Amino acid sequence: MPNTLYLPELREMLAENDADGLREFCTALHAARTAEFMEGLSAQESWAVLQHAKMPLRTEIFGFLDETKQLEMIETLARQEIAEFVGHLPPDDRVDLLANVRPWIVDELMPLIPTDERRDIQRLSAYPEDTAGAVMTTEFARVSEDLTVGQAQKRIAEQAEELETIYYLYVVDEEDHLRGLLSFRQLVSAMGKPDTQIGDLMERDLVTVNVADDQEEVAEKVARYDLLAIPVVDDEHHMLGIITHDDIIDVMREEAVEDAYRSAAVAPLDEGYLETHLLTLTWKRGIWLTILFFGAMLTALALREYESVIESYVWLVLFIPLVISTGGNMGNQSATLIITALSTADIALGDWWRVVRRELLMGLLLGGFLAVVGYFCALPAAPLPWWPTRLLTAMVIPVTILLVILCGTLLGAVLPLLFRRLGLDPAFMSNPFVAGLIDLVGIIIYMNVALALLPSQSGGL
Questions:
Q1: Cα–Cα distance between 59 and 63 in angstroms, integer?
Q2: Over residues 130-154, mean pLDDT
Q3: What is the pTM of this model?
Q4: Which candidate among 12, 14, 235, 363 keeps its CA 20 to 30 Å from the CA of 260?
Q5: Computed over its alpha carbons, how large is the radius of gyration of the chain?
Q6: How far apart are CA 395 and CA 393, in angstroms?
Q7: How far is CA 407 from CA 229, 414, 450, in A?
Q8: What backbone torsions phi and psi does residue 271 show, to the nearest 5 degrees?
Q9: Residue 268: what are its φ and ψ, rounded to 5°?
């Protein structure tokens, strides 16, 4: 809900062209708060307010505005004015923004954007989506290792206004090969020795990512080494750009949202829930729902194959929901644990045997406990007056529960690992998908255990 606290005052200042008041509004608060108070304004009104902030602050406030309003500004305001503004946006932000602008408008804007920025946009746009190259910014502090501390400070002071962040100084040679790194704190600490060369202070053992690396792998590496920014290099170790921690937060949030959608068997949304067209939302939900529907049909077909068993022992029907839900819940737990462990790098593909062994032992423990509970629940339901026969008949339930739980925990653990091995997102192995698969397997196990143990039947299918 828009924050309307300042809206009347803002509109009044705009109507009276109160430059001093609008300038103070832009500078008095954090850029995020300023953008929040502008939520109720139209795109044209917001743009008019931004004109009273200096360019670095203007781009910062713009970055906190709602994406819908950003796109409306880009698409409706004067092309020349917007093109100049886009040239001042952080490289990664402007590429992401233009990717959502209608193509014919981008074609009109690109020739108007300054040459260097236009080439940078074209270069970054060429990298595949969800790779390090698509997330990085090409603005970073670079110095040469033969500079002294004093010279480096002057060089950084010259570059500072054009840089998004100055967490680290990246030491490169004449061909832009990454040679080392120096934190800004190290540079400040060395101010007392201005003649010391950067090459004597810099770190040479660097953590880097390749421009083609998946953004999720980049996020894992940044989190593992607790970095504020990570350099991006090509195969020849040329320094291409950096990925900062705020971009990593966006990546992690994006990946978490995608995993949440997939865990519920919903294709990830490109926009917010309310902004997504009803037909698009129907498609993204319906495609997986249809797959799961046909999976459920297989379960029904499997039940039809065992009609004779069900007709002879109608009481077995009472425990079908218990059997399939227990196996499905166990599979969902295993799948969730393994997918989470893979996403946090807690386990790797090489740990597959340890994972399988651990999950099977877990299945035996939990399956044994629930089998005992299930046995005592089945005793009253078995309609046989002779107790020895009833004791044997009721064994169908605990044996089935144990086998279904073992099967569920094994499938829930192995399938995400298999998907990762195939280069797919383990989150595709969503809980409904695992549950649907185990439903089918559970029915087959249940009926064959009944065929094997019930007095008037023999053998399994």
A1: 6
A2: 87
A3: 0.66
A4: 363
A5: 31
A6: 5
A7: 44, 11, 17
A8: -130, 180
A9: -55, 140
Question: What is the separation of C-alpha 409 from the centre of its chain, rounded to a whole number of angstroms?
Answer: 25
Token code pair at residue 216 = 């999720």
pLDDT tens by residue, 79-122: 898 988 988 888 888 888 888 888 899 999 999 888 888 888 88
Q: What are 398-411's pLDDT values in tens digits? A: 999 999 999 999 99
- How far, in Å, CA of 128 to CA of 302, rounded? 44
Residue 395 phi, psi (nearest 5): -65, -20
Domain that holds residue 186: 141-244
Closest CA to 275 of 106, 52, 451, 69: 69
The contacts of residue 218 (CB under 8 Å, 6+ apart) are 132, 135, 209, 230, 243, 248, 251
Residue 348 counted as domain residue: yes
Per-residue tokens: 58: 């203007």
The phi and psi torsions of 77 (rounded to 5 degrees) equal -85, 170
Between CA 133 and CA 213 the distance in angstroms is 8
Measured distance CA(148)–CA(137) in Å, rounded:
26
CA–CA dist 147, 25 (Å, integer): 42
Q: Is residue 97 part of a domain?
A: yes
What's 238's DSSP letter?
A: B
Residue 267: inside a domain, yes or no?
no
Contact of 192 with 131, CB cutoff 8 Å = no
- For the record, the structure tokens of 47 come out as 């743009």
Q: What is the CATH number of the domain that holds 284?
A: 1.10.357.20
Q: What is the mean pLDDT of the chain?
A: 84
Q: How many CA atoms lie within 13 A of 1 on its CB side?
A: 2
- The DSSP symbol for 267 reads P
The candidate with the shortest Cα–Cα distance to 142, out of 132, 150, 152, is: 152
Q: Which residues contact 244 (CB under 8 A, 6 or more apart)?
A: 137, 164, 165, 167, 228, 229
118 and 25 in one domain?
yes
Q: What is the DSSP string of 275-290?
A: TS-HHHHHHHHHHHHH
pLDDT digits (tens, 9 = 90+) for 256-307: 777 777 766 677 777 777 777 788 878 888 877 787 788 778 888 888 888 8
Token digits of residue 349: 């593909």
- Burial (Cβ within 10 Å: 0-12, 13-18, ≥19) of residue 99: exposed
Cβ pair 90, 139 in contact under 8 A: yes
Of how many residues is the chain composed?
Answer: 461
Check whether residue 184 and residue 317 sit in a common domain: no
